[in-house]
Design goal:
- It contains 16 helices and 16 strands.
- By secondary structure, it is α/β, with parallel strands linked by helices.
- The longest helix has 17 residues.
- The structure holds N-(iminomethyl)-L-glutamic acid and fe (iii) ion.
- The site of fe (iii) ion (FE) has 4 residues, from loops.
Length: 420
C-alpha cells in the first residue's frame, strides 16, 4: 500500500481552476455543487493537502517549496477506479466478436464461456505472471489520472487460486505508485468441478479457514458477490457476505446487472459499502440502498461494451443516492481501462453533468471504498492525490471525448506521471 513520507512537500501554482470537491459521500444535488477556485494554488506538506486557495493569498514561506506550474490547467482530485477485476490473465477476444454478431453475455456464459474461460487462464498463471500482465494496465491507468484502484479476485474460484490472485494484488501494490484496494470475490461464478452444486461451492469459498487466512494476512478489505440470474442467489450471497463480515470484510455486491432478483435490497439490508451495476435497480432496491447508506456504483462501460441498456443514473441522483462511476475493467464484459472514457459515456449517454461525473469518480468512489476521509476530496489533511489537466475548465475535458488531457499526476504529494 502506498505510504507518504516527510519529503513530499510541494507547491502547485498556476492553477486555472481548482475543483474543490468536498468529502464524500455526495448525495443527490450535492454532486453538482462543487466549489471552483480560479487562479489557485495548493500547498502539500508530508504528502497531504496543507493549504489551498487563490494564489494571491499564498501563505508566507510557501513560495520557497519545490514547485510545479499547472500552466493554467484545471486541477482535480486523483481519480478513483472503485470497481475493477484486475488482475486477470489472457483475453476473450473471440467472445467479443460472438457478442458483436448477436450472442448475449448470458448465453455465452451458459454455454460454458465467460468467466470460466478467464478462470482457466488465471489458474494456469502463477502469481508473477498475474503481476506482469497487470502492471502495464495499471501504468496506463496512472497516466490517465487514476491514483486509486480497487482490485478483485474472483477468477481463481478455488481457495488456492483465489489466494494467488489476492497475493498478486499485494505484490502489485509494492510495484505501482497507486493505492490498490483489494476485494475478495470468491463468489463470482461456480467453477466446473462444482457444476450444479452452488451451495457446496459457497461453503468452499466462504470456509472459515480461507476467510481467516484472508483476514490474518490482510489480503482483502471487502468481500463481493455476483448476485444475479445465472450467478448466486440472494440466500447464497447473504451467506457469503455475512461470513465475510464476521472476519472483518466489508460487503459489496454485483447487483441488478442482468435481472432484478433482490440483490440491491440485500445490499441495503447488509449496509454494504456499495452495490454495483444496477441496470435493473427497482424502487425497493433504491429505497433499501438509501436507508443503508450504500453507494450506487454505476458502470456504463459495461452496458456500452455489452450493448445493453444503461443504468438510470439520473433517477438515482434524483432519489438522493450517492452515485459513483468506475470502469469494471475485466476481459469479458468491459475491456476498458480508461476511466476518462467511462466519464464521457456517463456524460453523453447517462446525461450526468461534468461536475456530477467528477464527484462520482472522486468523493463518491472514495465512499464506495470507505476511504472518504483519506482520498477523493480537496480538503486540508487529505492525501495529496491530484491531477492537472491541460485545459482551464473541467467542462472542456468532458467536451473532448477521446482526447488525452491529463498533464500531471500527483500521488501522496509525489509527481508520479507527467505527459510529454
Ligand atoms: O462485473 N458481472 C460479473 N462479473 C464481471 C464480468 C466478469 C467476466 O465476464 O469476466 C462484471 O461485469
Ligand atoms: Fe464487475
Amino acid at each position: 500500500m502506498h505510504t507518504t513520507d516527510a519529503d513530499e512537500s510541494l507547491l502547485i501554482r498556476g492553477i486555472g481552476s481548482l475543483i474543490a470537491v468536498p468529502r464524500g459521500p455526495l448525495c443527490g444535488a450535492a454532486m453538482s455543487a462543487l466549489p471552483t477556485i480560479r487562479d489557485a494554488a495548493i500547498v502539500i506538506e508530508n504528502g497531504r493537502l496543507a493549504w489551498f486557495g487563490p494564489q494571491r493569498d499564498l501563505p508566507a514561506g510557501a513560495a520557497a517549496l519545490p514547485s510545479l506550474d499547472a500552466r493554467g490547467g484545471c486541477v482535480i482530485p486523483g481519480l478513483i477506479d472503485c470497481h475493477t477485476h484486475i488482475p486477470f490473465a489472457g483475453d476473450r477476444v473471440e467472445e467479443f466478436v460472438r457478442r458483436v454478431a448477436g450472442e448475449s453475455y448470458l448465453s455465452i456464459m451458459q454455454a460454458g464461456g465467460g468467466i470460466r474461460v478467464t478462470m482457466r487462464a488465471v489458474r494456469a498463471a502463477n502469481e508473477a505472471q498475474l503481476v506482469d500482465q497487470a502492471l502495464p494496465r495499471l501504468r496506463r491507468m496512472l497516466a490517465g489520472g487514476v491514483t486509486t484502484v480497487e482490485c478483485k479476485s474472483g477468477y481463481g474460484l478455488s481457495a488456492e487460486d483465489e489466494l494467488k490472485q489476492l497475493r498478486a494484488i499485494r505484490a502489485l501494490a509494492e510495484r505501482v505508485p497507486q493505492r490498490l484496494v483489494p476485494t475478495y470475490m470468491g463468489a463470482h461464478a461456480v467453477p466446473p468441478e462444482f457444476e450444479g452444486r452452488a451451495d457446496a461451492f459457497v461453503e468452499h469459498i466462504a470456509a472459515d479457514d480461507l476467510l481467516n487466512t484472508i483476514a490474518r494476512e490482510r489480503l482483502a478489505r471487502f468481500c463481493d458477490v455476483f448476485c444475479d440470474r445465472g450467478a448466486f442467489d440472494v440466500a447464497q450471497a447473504r451467506r457469503v457476505l455475512e461470513r465475510g463480515l464476521h472476519h472483518g470484510l466489508i460487503p459489496k455486491l454485483h447487483a441488478d446487472e442482468l435481472a432484478q432478483i433482490g440483490a440491491s435490497a440485500l445490499a441495503g439490508e447488509l449496509r454494504a459499502a456499495s452495490a454495483d451495476h444496477l441496470e435493473h435497480l427497482d424502487e425497493a432496491g433504491m429505497e433499501a440502498m438509501r436507508r443503508g447508506g450504500v453507494t450506487a456504483v454505476v458502470l456504463p462501460g459495461t452496458s456500452f461494451f455489452l450493448g445493453i441498456p444503461h443504468a438510470d443514473a439520473r433517477k438515482m441522483i434524483r432519489s438522493g443516492l450517492a452515485v459513483a462511476l468506475a470502469t469494471d475493467c475485466n476481459p469479458g464484459s468491459c475491456m476498458i481501462e480508461s476511466l476518462a472514457f467511462i466519464l464521457h459515456i456517463a456524460c453523453c449517454q447517462l446525461r450526468m453533468l461534468p461536475s456530477e461525473a467528477l464527484a462520482a469518480c472522486t468523493a463518491n468512489a472514495a465512499a464506495a471504498l470507505r476511504m472518504q476521509d483519506e482520498i477523493g476530496a480537496i480538503e486540508r489533511g487529505m492525501a495529496a492525490d491530484l491531477v492537472a489537466l491541460d485545459c482551464g475548465r473541467l467542462e472542456e475535458w468532458f467536451y473532448t471525448p477521446g482526447r488525452e488531457r491529463v498533464r500531471v499526476v500527483v500521488c501522496g504529494g509525489r509527481v508520479v506521471h507527467q505527459a510529454e
